[in-house]
Amino acid sequence: MTLGSVCRVWIVCMLLSGTLSLGCERLQLLQVLNTDSLDKLNEMGGHLSRQCRTERRSLDSKPLDLVKLSTGIHAHDKIQIVHQTLHHLRRIYSMKLSSVTWVQATVEHFTLLLDRQLRELEVCVKKASPGSRARKNATVLKYFKDLTKFLKQKGFSDCAWEITYTESRAHLQQLLLIMATISKEY
């Protein structure tokens, strides 16, 4: 066995031991699925147009900083934030998509990846401690209510979806960082 192979086996064992103690045997799989979700999302669109950047100001919510929200809390609470964020993203992408020009098969694949991540997280969420969870989840809930309201107010316009897409991409990137910190905690 080469030194590189030994290092990889050791890293996997270290990460796995931490996730097993959480009851989340699939945290590494979640990171892969999250990366795949980001790839699918990137296939769906690009950067915000100038017109949509201006319209972003009408979203009655400041950007959701999931990394900041998860700082200083236990891994179980971080898992809850990851789960709730994925749940809300899944709900949003199940809404009226008739105005978007995205390839339908790509959108469906993206939502299937979100579904898979949610299923994988179910065991972890059941073990989450109820302590600070309610306050943290209220922040996530309020943000996604505002985003859903924004989409409806804008009539599910192309620009509203473009803004939602950009916000979603930022959230998935933040979830990767949160999952990495969960792995490091154990």
Note the topology:
Blueprint: H1 3-22, H2 27-44, H3 50-56, H4 66-70, H5 75-92, H6 104-126, H7 133-153, H8 158-185
How much strand?
under 5%
**Rg on CA atoms, Å:** 18 Å
Dominant shape = globular
Q: Could you state the order of secondary-structure elements as H and E? A: HHHHHHHH
Give the mean pLDDT: 78
Structural class: mainly alpha
Biggest β-sheet: count, sense, barrel? none
Q: Count of DSSP helices?
A: 8
Helix content: over 70%
Low-confidence stretches: 1-22
Q: Would you report the number of β strands?
A: 0
Please provide a written account of the structure.
By secondary structure, the protein is mainly alpha-helical. The chain is 75% helix and 0% strand. It contains 8 helices and no strands. It has helices at residues 3-22, 27-44, 50-56, 66-70, 75-92, 104-126, 133-153, 158-185. Helix 5 (75-92) packs antiparallel against helix 6.
Question: What is shown here, in short?
Answer:
With 186 residues, this protein is mostly helical.
